[in-house]
Amino acid sequence: MAKPIALxxxxxxxxxxxxxxxxxxxxxIVAAARSAPDLDRLASDIRAGGGTCTPVxxxxxxxxxxxxxxxxLEADVLVNNAGVGVMKPLLEMTPEEWHRxxxxxxxxxxxxxxxxxxxxxxRRRGHVVIVGSISGRSTYAGGTAYTGTKHAVMAFAECLxxxxxxxxxxxxxxxxxxxxxxxxxxxxxxxxxxxxxAEDVAETVAFAxxxxxxxxxxxxxxxxxxxxxxxxxxxx
Length: 236
Known about the structure:
Radius of gyration: 18 Å
CATH superfamily: NAD(P)-binding Rossmann-like Domain
């Protein structure tokens, strides 16, 4: 039997790449991101492990490109992971930086979900997972755009759940703390030591997807349990 299809956005690196790799044994992966070379490397790695991966190079801030790239895709799972963060005071942030965050972190969430959700509703099954952030319930100086988008993500997800759960579609939000990726620094020790690995977030997504048909994990916050100590100077 054919495997169900999982669409993962922002799949070219970091958390998205880890999620695609973690789900590959159980799903046919459709990997969407801007970087075609990175997607090709991901697809090659998944195929080498016996899985299936279809790269979809697309600018997720372009609604027309999204509609064209995802037209006809019958996804059983959607993992909305793509995101970007520019941390600086509002008066130092350019309009381009502001709109880039809003377009990718929030508007793309609408456009991608809108492309595949009708099929889930008509089949009366499916699961939308959104990778959010603990910034969706907190604030800090320099986070006007980023935390604003993450607060919006939380409201979007809860409203969407109320709209589609009677049609058999699940909606989950996974909110990580700091994660050691290219997004904010790949060294866990550089974040005070309290950083998850991308693979930890991927396991949490897999857990949310593994629940029985009548069970929904709608919101989960995941953090590092212990502090990572920096490597000794002059050695690994």
